[in-house]
Amino acid sequence: MIKNYFKIAWRNIMKHKVFSLINVIGLTIGLSASFVIGLMIYYDYTFDDFHKDGDRIYRVVSDFKSPQGTFHNSGVTLALKDAIADNSNFESITEFYINRPSKVENKANNTEFKWPNFVMYTDEAYFNIFDYKFIAGDKSTALDKPNNVILTETRAKEYFPNTAPADLIGKTLVYNDSINITVSGVVENFKKRTDFVFEEFISHQTLLQTDRREELLERQWGNTNSDSQLFVKLTESANVVSIQKRLDDLALEHTDEDDKKYEMSREFQLQPLSDIHFNEDYGIYDWSKGQASKSLLSNLALVAVFLLLLGCINFINLNTAQASQRAKEIGIRKTLGSSRKQLISQFMGETFLLVFFSALLSIVLSKWLINVFSDFVPEDLSFELFKAPLIVLSILLLLFVVTILSGFYPALVLSKFNTVSVLKNHMAAGEKKVRLRKFLTVFQFTIAQIFIIGTLLVGKQINYLLNKDMGFKTDAIVSVYSPRSERELSKKELYAEKLRSIPEIKSVSIGSHAPASYSTNTTNVTYTNEEEIIKSEMQYIFGDTNYANLFELDILAGRIHRNDTVRELVINETLLKKLGFNSPDDAIGKALTVNDEQTPIVGVMADFNQRSLKSEIKPMALRGDWYRSQFSQFQAIHVSFHNESSENLKSTLTKIEDAYKSVYTETEDYRLQFMDQTIETFYNREKKISKLLNWATGLSILISCLGLLGLVIYTTNRRVKEIGVRKVLGASLFQINTLLCKEFLLLVAIAFVIATPLAWYGIYSWLQDFTYKTSISFIAFIVGGAAMIFFALLVISFKTLSAANANPVNSLRSE
Amino acid sequence: MNTKLLSLNEATRTVNSGSNKVTLLDDINLQVNEGEFISLMGPSGSGKSTLLNCIGMLDSFTGGGYTFLGEPVHSMKEKNRSKLYKEYIGFVFQAYHLIDELTVWENIETPLLYKSIKSSERKALVADMLDRFNIVGKKDLFPQQLSGGQQQLVGIARALIGKPKLILADEPTGNLNSKQSTEIMELFSQLNKDGVTIIQATHSEQNAAYGSRIINLLDGKIVEE
């Protein structure tokens, strides 16, 4: 029976090749999108899901609330652990301190490793909470003495190539030239996906021998460093509410007077292990990996669902339209004794065959799609994930759902046919479902239309952001950062001097970051005038006397600081207004209290954007490097070019790098950033959305138009005789084409009417994230609508023209 | 051979066409015994096909009683009714109504699928039938590749494969030339001799003459027997 069904299903598929192709293409696109996006969701949701009792593991994090907003810090004060250690709700509690040594030496081999990553200082409890497999050494004793280290297998191979793990115990490494540390254990790296990427675990007491000694000895409540992490594992019967209460009490108890004065408060939160991978507020340990975003994933899932729906709709439309062709077979089968149930299962079987075929194609396509969407897909997400049992099961479930979704309704319609009227050729069944098909077509085109308008407007906004004047010069500028370990100013000056001698370079300035960057340095200022005390936060940018000139910052009043070390401020307009000055000239010569010292305002600069245009302009001041003797803020050399033509640029960049190497002979830490590229990175997320929308638009247009094509082919074929008669009666090609196109274009027009407000609303809410936004122009809607009608017309005419062109004699003779 | 196969007792069928009530079959009284070969005659629209469809349970009477093998069909549930006709009734159509996507073999096999007969048994039955009708050589062809007469042979083979007691034939030779017609009618009378009850609707006096009993219909009424 089953074999018979599949046989006839296959023959039907082959008989209606065009329709089958349209169905398969639609379903394949929908399924491929679902597969890839499903894999991504699976990938991100299976991070750190393998830890024993993972649902009882929490990270304690700090939130700082102030009138300016809430700031999140993944670390907690070192004082917290002792205060909560004796709480009976905790099964285990561990603190670890992330600290990257500048150098690790294996003296025996005479090898040296600079800035090894993922090094932490911790204790045995860490290994009680996180279950590492020990290859060598003993968990309970490995970290109980200072100057011991546990290495992961990977790191051990790096430090001690070709040595068996068991032989490593007792070997010595020298950290930061002075600390001798003995290897006391080797653990396996986590084999599954994890954000716990640490490679070296040094016993916690060893921290006393580093520059963090003071911090550790004092364990001050007021000091929070994101390197200081605290993890707890709750007991099975733990009371989360009471833990939170205790944390709240502690936070309150240790609020200092200054914080109260500035209305600032701190809260400790328990962050579940499963939240770490997604929560951007607190971040993950490996910054180089993009953090998973639940909102991005759900947007992607939405796209997949829409594409899949569009594919299913094509299936429903084409199959109900074709129903009359199958009607005879159904009638006969009924007279031969088939029950309705049997017919339904036969048609579902046919649907499943198509869906299954599409799924096979999709799996092949997915491999390619993973590459196309590399911006979204995490690097190590591989095709192998398809083998995961959960994925296999989900795919089967999806296929089942898609089969039901697209096959059930047509099956119901088909199996309902009245045997007698079908066999007598009194067929009208196809006609009755016209309204449903129209509704579904409108639905399809509405989705496609929304995508088109969305793409246009998102593109417009991104263009606007990238091209809007930031308030300072952004093109033809590069910044070269000094080596991280190199703090000495003389070398920077030497380097700057060498750069000045390059003829293509227009101007050079030493300073901190460029005016717009990801880094901020914020402090609080107070200004006292005759009536009141005004407080504000203030961001710094640091630069030499040429900084404002190089970035073409607009000085509205006064002047810039006289030299690099004088204690003078150049404030921006936002700060000017916040401090209550009416005009820039009023502020000149007034003094602000910064870190308890009076600091004069010598100039006022025009506002510029310090970050992406999503954020507002913050109060800011430009200043020199007045604490130079203790800590120089100057870490970059900014260079502007005379012109930025590409052939010149290349040779100029080589010269800049050569000069760098002649000054910093020992290091390879060469970092150069183009100002305009930095600004583009502000909008990476928007660009991703834009790319995603482009794809969704293209695919939804494709699927919808294919569906439309199918319907047009079908209706036109049914009207061949009518077309013949009309031609004989003298209708022109154009008249016939208009007649045939009219009803379909009407559907597209209705879709446009429905889509317009929806698209407007969607874009409107998306734009709310931006401080600076383009207008939602009507042109985008008109262009979007025109594009949709153009595509639809193209598809419709493809078939109708040939039908209208056909010789009427042929169509009439056949009757 | 005088077992009663079916009986109609004042059976009527009316349908609503717009606001008019149209009577298609009016007060039909008919007894059919096993082994009979009945020819229904009458002009187009006289109700021959409707009567056949109603007897074949594809349509139902809207009034009166219909008893098949002693069971009251008019008060039966759809499920039991379909079980009944699956078991006892075979159809032959004017337009053959073979399934275009299936081969001759598969077309003949289809009714057996719906009776849930085992694969090996199906094979044997279909092979027998092909043999009997001398169409073994055509078994892998599709309906379009056959002549009208051959298609009707397949149609009859398919109707017979389930070993029905009653064959309902609606103008079985309507689309055939006279030579093919004769062959098909000869076949019917042979089948009738083998014990199958046949009711056929026909326009042709010549074909009607093969029957053991001729019933004339006009405007939904039996006018002459």
What is the CATH topology assignment of chain B? Rossmann fold
Whole-number mean pLDDT of chain A:
86
Strand content of chain A: 15-25%
Number of domains of chain A: 4
Structural class of chain A: alpha+beta
CATH superfamily label of chain B: P-loop containing nucleotide triphosphate hydrolases
Please report the two chains with the greatest interface, counting residues with C-beta closer than 8 angstroms to the partner's C-beta: A-B, 23 and 28 residues
GO molecular function (chain B): ATP binding
Keywords (chain B): ATP-binding, Nucleotide-binding, Transport
Protein name (chain B): ABC transporter ATP-binding protein
Domain ABC transporter (chain B): 6-225
Topology:
The complex is a heterodimer of chains A (815) and B (225).
Chain A (H helix, E strand, L loop, with lengths): L1 H14 L1 H29 L11 E10 L2 E5 L6 H5 L5 E9 L4 E4 L4 E4 L4 E4 L1 H6 L4 E4 L10 E5 H7 L5 H4 L3 E4 L3 E9 L12 E4 L9 H6 L9 E7 L5 H14 L3 H5 L3 E8 H4 L17 H28 L1 H13 L4 H33 L16 H28 L2 H5 L5 H4 L1 H34 L9 E5 L7 H12 L4 E7 L10 E7 L4 E10 L4 H4 L4 E4 L10 E4 H6 L5 H4 L3 E4 L2 E9 L14 E4 L12 E6 L4 H18 L7 E4 H7 L2 H35 L1 H9 L4 H35 L10 H28 L2 H6 L2
Parallel strand pairs in A: 6-11, 8-10, 17-22, 19-21
Antiparallel strand pairs in A: 1-2, 1-12, 1-13, 3-6, 3-12, 4-5, 4-9, 7-10, 8-11, 9-10, 14-23, 14-24, 15-23, 16-17, 16-20, 18-21, 19-22, 20-21
Helix pairs in contact in A: 1-13, 2-11, 2-13, 2-24, 11-14, 11-17, 11-24, 12-14, 13-14, 17-24, 17-26, 17-27, 18-22, 24-27, 26-27
Chain B lengths: L3 E14 L2 E14 L3 E5 L6 H8 L7 E6 L2 E2 L5 H11 E4 L11 H11 L4 H14 L15 H13 L5 E5 L7 H16 L3 E5 L3 H4 L4 E6 L2 E4 L1
Parallel strand pairs in B: 3-8, 3-9, 6-7, 7-8
Antiparallel strand pairs in B: 1-2, 1-4, 4-5, 9-10
Helix pairs in contact in B: 3-4, 3-5
